[in-house]
Every structure is written in structure tokens, then in C-alpha cells.
Amino acid sequence: MNMHTARAALGLDTLKTILGISVLAIRWDDAIALLARLIAERRFTKVSFLNAHNANIAYTDPVFAEALDDFLILPDGVGVDLAAKLLYGAPFPDNLNGTDFIPAFLQASARPLTVGLLGATRANAEAASVKLAVLAVQHKFVVIHDGYFSPAEEQAIVDRIEALRPDVLLVAMGVPRQELWIARHIDARHCTLPVAVGALLDFLSGTVPRAPLWMRQLRLEWLFRLCIEPGRLWRRYVVGNPLFLWRVVKQKFSYRPKPAGDRR
């Protein structure tokens, strides 16, 4: 199930297009119910999140943009909210960032699920699985492999996923590698819901700290992350955020209809 069939399934025109990527405009509780329904019906659906950073990558990487077209995309962060305001006059109904939304979804899912974890370091993935098992005791969490595998190891990992066939597969390899890996290797034989989760396992493990709640409520988590890892993240935020907004402004003014009588 991709974004276009999602719209048909929901019976609503719920997509907002940000820099060519279709993003689901949906409330938090409705998104949880949607994912639960997809799992219950065993409808294979690739899931990812759009924020300013990966929107910028998709803008210049057509292979990544094409892969995202077959994912159910949820809105993540203040950047895409600003974009939705600029382009559509209203922000997304809720911020469905994976770091908060995926643990909340797993907590809310009463039906016992098998959840596979793939990515991060082995230590972080193991620590994340322990944390998730405390948060959502009804589910079984299985660490499949860390994210640092060679091409020679790839087939064995895919075979292990197929043998386990988890309901949910959390893939934490960073953008765009995680989405491209899912697109190239994972289908309905392997799991029901593969989810590209970025740094989720690092956050859950406690290795990478979260911003204080007040900063998250003010939508300033990106600033906290920049302060924690300036060397790695300055280009993403200091250069990337203004570039993203500039591209959104260009999108807004590139679709103006020609005035009546202008036949040039």
C-alpha cells in the first residue's frame, strides 16, 4: 500500500505535497489506528517520515524520491509544518516524528506483535529492544542485525527477516540508505510494516540524548541536536533548513496559473 492507495483507503483527500513528496495529513490517533489496521489486514506497507533534511535529499536525488513515492509518508518536524502553512495555509494536524510516534504506536497496539530491529550498533539495538520491551510488554522484540553489514552479509539478513516475518520491521540506517534498502530488499514475504526510523534506536538506547521536553514542545529539538553534534549536523540544519524553505517558496510560486488571455 503506497500513498495513493492510502488516500483511497482513508476515503479522504489527506495528502499534502512537499517538494514533490506526498505526505499524509492525519491526526496522531488516526495514524495509530491506520497502522494497526494495516497490520491486522496484513497489508504490506512501507512507512517513512518527511522532514526538511530528507526532503532536501529527495529534491536532488531522483532515485530516493522515486523510492519514497511507494512509501506511506508521515510528517516529521517544524520544517514540513512551515512548508504546509506556506503551501496549503495550514500546518499538518500533528507532528508524527518517528522518535515519539513509533514507541507510542507500539504502546497503543493491544494485539501482540513481533517487531524486528535492524540497524544502529549492536549494543544500541539491544538496549533499544530492552527499552521497547518495557514500554510495550505485549510485543516480542527481536534484534536482527546491526546496521554495519557488508554486501556479502546482506542475503543472510534478508533470509533471517523472511524466516521471522515480523509484523513490524524497524530499519535504522539513516537517510537515504534505510529507505533504499527497504525498497530494494523488503516485500510482503518479509514483514507487514517496514518502517524507516533513522536515529530511533540510538535515542531509545540512551546513547544519543533527547532534547528537554520544553524544547520539544517549542519545536526546537533540531537546535538541541545541533548543539550536541555540531560537527555532524551543522550542514543539515544551518544550511539545510533555509535551503528547504527557499525550495518550498519556489514550489509555491512555480504553479501560478497564467492570467486569462496570456497565450505565450
UniProtKB/TrEMBL annotation:
<keyword id="KW-0808">Transferase</keyword>
<dbReference type="InterPro" id="IPR004629">
    <property type="entry name" value="WecG_TagA_CpsF"/>
</dbReference>
<dbReference type="GO" id="GO:0016758">
    <property type="term" value="F:hexosyltransferase activity"/>
</dbReference>
<keyword id="KW-0328">Glycosyltransferase</keyword>
<dbReference type="Pfam" id="PF03808">
    <property type="entry name" value="Glyco_tran_WecG"/>
</dbReference>
<protein>
    <submittedName>
        <fullName>WecB/TagA/CpsF family glycosyltransferase</fullName>
    </submittedName>
</protein>
